[in-house]
Structures are given as C-alpha cells and as structure tokens.
Write a structure and sequence with these properties.
472 residues, 4-stranded antiparallel β-sheet, 63% helix, disordered N terminus
C-alpha cells in the first residue's frame, strides 16, 4: 500500500512540475511578444516613416547623372559626294579619291589638271564636313529644384506624416486588443477553474450523502425512492464535474493560443485578483479620455489626409515653377567642329519652366470632390466622438453595476453556505430528509457559481473600461 501511495505522489509531483505558474502580466508579455503580428506592425510603422522622409526629401534639389553610348554604322556627310558646277562635275569616290568631268561644250583650252585641282579642293571641303559618328558618347549632370508647385509637396508631406501617425496608433490599438483578449481568456480560465472546484465539492457532498442514505436504507430508516433521488442527483453532479473539466481544458487551450504557447500548456494562474475590482480614478466621461481613443485619433489623422488631398487637387489649378541646371559633355563634341577627340569642352545650361493652367475643368471637379470627401470624414469624426462617449459611459455604469452584483452574489453565497451548514446539521440530527439537504446543496452550488460569474464579468468589464480610458 505504501508503494502505491509513493507512486501516486510521484505522478502528482511530475504533473505539478509540468504546470508552470503564470501571472497576468506574464501572459500579457507572452502574447505581445509572440507571433508575427507585432513584427508586422513594426514593419508597417517603419514603412510609413520612410514614406514621410521621402515626402520631405522631394522638396529639396534632385541631382541626376545620365550617360549614353551609341554606335552608328555610317558617318555623317554634310555635302553630297557628287556636286555639279556650271562647267563640270566633281565626284568623291568611295575609295577616297576625287575625279573631275568637264561639261560638254566647255572649251578644251582648259586642261584636265585644272579640273582635277577643282575636284581635289572639293574633296578637302567634303572631308572637312564629314563627321565621325561611329561612336557617340553623351554625359550629363543636372539639378532640378521645384520652386512653387501649388502646395502639392507640402501637402504630400502632411499626408505621409498623418499616415505614419495612423500606423503608430494602429500598433497601439493592436497592442490594447491583444491585452484585452489575454485578460478575457485569463479570467475565463480562473473562473472555470473555480467552477470546476465547486463541481468537485458538490459531487463529493452528494457522494457522501449517497453513502449515508445507503446506510440508512440498510437500517430501514429511508425508502428506496430516497436513495434513487440521491443517486440521480449524484449522476447529474458527475456530469457537471465532467463538463467543468472539459471547459477548463478548452479555456486553457484558448489562453495558450492567445499567449503563443503550445495548446497542451497547463496553467497555474494567480486567482487573487479576481475579487479585486476597482474603478479607474479618471472620469469616464472626460473629453481627454474620449479624445485619447485610438479610433478617434485615427479618424482625426484621416481628416488631415482628406484636407491635404483637397489642397493637392487645388494645386492643379495653380502655376507650377521648376528650375533646372545641368552640365553636358558629348563626344563628338560641339566645342570644336564635332571633333571626336576628348579634348573638347562641355557646356552649362540653366532655365526655369513655368506652367500656368488656364482651362482645367477636370481639376476643378476633383477639387470639389476632395472638399466633400474631407467634409464627410469630419462629420464621421464628430459622430464617432459621440458614440465613443456613450460607449465609455456605458462601460463605466456596467462596471459599477458589476460591483453591486458581486456584493449581492457574495451575500447570497454566504447565506447559502450557512443554510447548507445548518441543513447538514439538521440532517445529521434526523430533523430533515435527504431531499431537503440536496436542495440546500444545490442552492449553495448555484449561489457560488453566480459569484464566480459575477467576479469574472466584473474583471472583463474593468479591463474593457481601462481600454476605453487608455489605462491598459
């Protein structure tokens, strides 16, 4: 017998070792650090920050370097290879030689040598006006600076900044949502665990009562019907105990899933805070609490974006002024008669471009549409502010009601426990029947369960109110 006890104790010790103690703060930290949700939010926030920096950088000069190379199979000739004069024709042959032919009827006193000299002279001019374009290289460095673009750039920066703020608010809102889900799952495990303990106590009471009634039946003090009533009640209690055990298993799995732990994780939780309910010191109806809500702050940023979009649409109706300057070098270069040598000089250029819209009906309509869109967001913001004020007030009242419900449930539970104690004593003294004792046991179980439910509901409501007030 001692060996069996030792084995049972060793198994229980192993299970206790596998069950890790977790506080509410530890569960919150696990949930916030687990999974890819937090990483995704951080990447979104970084993307928004770089977009804002890019919008700011667009207001400063842009420096660009360009280079190009082109190969041509032929050179450029400004003169024809054959030119007719009134007295003859000069021809530059493909092999580079020049020939001359006198026109018919021209006096023969002029020698062929004189004609060849004319052809040679034409060839020299022909060669001078032939440019080597087999290889063309162009390099350019330029600077562009927007001077005035109707406020488009500054409003693009405002949009990027508001988008960055929205990303930060969404990250904060996601964090609060995770904390709320953890708290809800945490206190559910605690409450279901207490219900399981109550179901086990209730089951033990009925088992003991069943044993007592069997002994009384053997002595002829009760009837078989009394035993059947107790046995039926004990069977119902066994089912409730099994349901509580299954509920605790599922609640543990839900908490493990939220915390990013294996679903088989067994929890030992701090239950001391279940009965500690406290209203936040801040007024639930204060404007500061409502204005701090992420939903309202994101709408306010969306309102800024809508107004900036309207200003960008209006920029299409205003003049745009852009200045540019650059240095260009080419080979063949234009500094020395399209020479293909690398000793030429580049040239500097600078200018200002002004664009003035005159009749742009589409831009006017876009501006009107953007103004109405901004007004719609503004109205949505005001509507949301009123709804959030109502929501926070309701949560505040609900928590106050939950505190009163706990006080009443605790009083009812204490009374039911006292009634059960008195009923047990009366039953032991033979003054009441087993059915009357079972009624007292059932009433005690119901009162204790109601107390656990009231405390769990109050904790969830408290977390919800703290979320509304930005106190998580």
């Amino acid at each position: 017998m001692s060996v069996i006890c030792l084995c049972v104790l060793s198994v229980l010790a192993a299970k206790a070792a596998d069950t890790t103690y977790y506080s509410l703060k530890q569960c919150r930290d696990l949930a916030l650090s687990s999974g890819n949700s937090a990483k995704s939010q951080e990447e979104t926030r970084l993307a928004a920050r770089y977009n804002r920096q890019a919008a700011l950088a667009s207001m400063f000069p842009k420096i660009t370097a360009n280079g190009s190379y082109m190969y041509n199979s032929r050179n450029a000739h400004l003169l024809s290879n054959t030119t007719d004069f009134t007295f003859g024709t000069a021809t530059v042959n493909p092999d580079g030689t020049a020939t001359w032919k006198w026109r018919d009827g021209v006096t023969g006193t002029i020698s062929d040598a004189a004609g060849q000299r004319i052809a040679d002279a034409y060839q020299m001019v022909y060669d001078k006006l032939t440019f080597d374009l087999h290889h063309i290289v162009v390099a350019q460095v330029g600077v562009t600076q927007p001077i005035y673009v109707g406020g488009r750039l500054i409003n693009m920066y405002k949009i990027a900044k508001a988008t960055e703020n929205i990303a930060a608010i969404e990250s904060e809102n996601k964090r609060e949502a995770i904390i709320y889900s953890v708290d809800e799952a945490y206190w559910r495990v605690v409450s279901v665990g207490k219900k399981k303990e109550l179901a086990e106590q209730y089951y033990k009471l009925l088992c003991q009562l069943e044993t007592d009634v069997k002994e009384a039946l053997d002595e002829g003090l009760v009837t078989q019907s009394d035993l059947l009533k107790v046995t039926t009640k004990r069977g119902e209690a066994e089912v409730k105990k099994l349901q509580a055990e299954n509920g605790l298993t599922l609640s543990n799995m839900a908490l493990a899933q939220v915390c990013g732990l294996p679903l088989s994780t067994a929890f030992r939780l701090d239950e001391s805070g279940l009965s500690e309910i406290a209203l936040p010191s801040d007024s639930a109806n204060s404007d500061a609490a409502v204005n701090a809500r992420p939903e309202l702050r994101m709408l306010e940023e969306a309102e800024k974006i809508a107004r900036s979009n309207a200003m960008i649409a209006a920029a299409g109706l205003q003049p745009n002024i852009v200045a540019s300057a650059g240095y260009i070098y080419t080979n063949p270069n234009v500094d020395n008669g399209f020479s293909s040598k690398w000793d030429g000089k580049g040239f500097f250029s600078a200018g200002v471009v002004v664009n003035v819209p005159i009749a742009h009906a589409d831009d006017i309509l876009r501006y009107k549409a953007a103004k109405h869109a901004a007004k719609a967001v503004e109205l949505k913001t005001e509507e949301t502010r009123a709804l959030l004020t109502l929501q926070t007030t309701q949560a505040n009242q609900k928590l106050a009601e939950a505190q009163q419900k706990i006080a009443l449930a605790r009083l009812t539970c204490n009374n039911a426990a006292e009634v059960l104690r008195m009923a047990q004593e009366s039953y032991d003294a033979g003054m009441i029947t087993s059915s009357e004792l079972m009624q007292a046991q059932t009433a005690w179980l119901a009162a204790a369960t109601d107390l656990v439910d009231a405390e769990a509901e109050a904790k969830t409501t408290e977390t919800q109110l703290r979320k509304y007030l930005g106190k998580l």
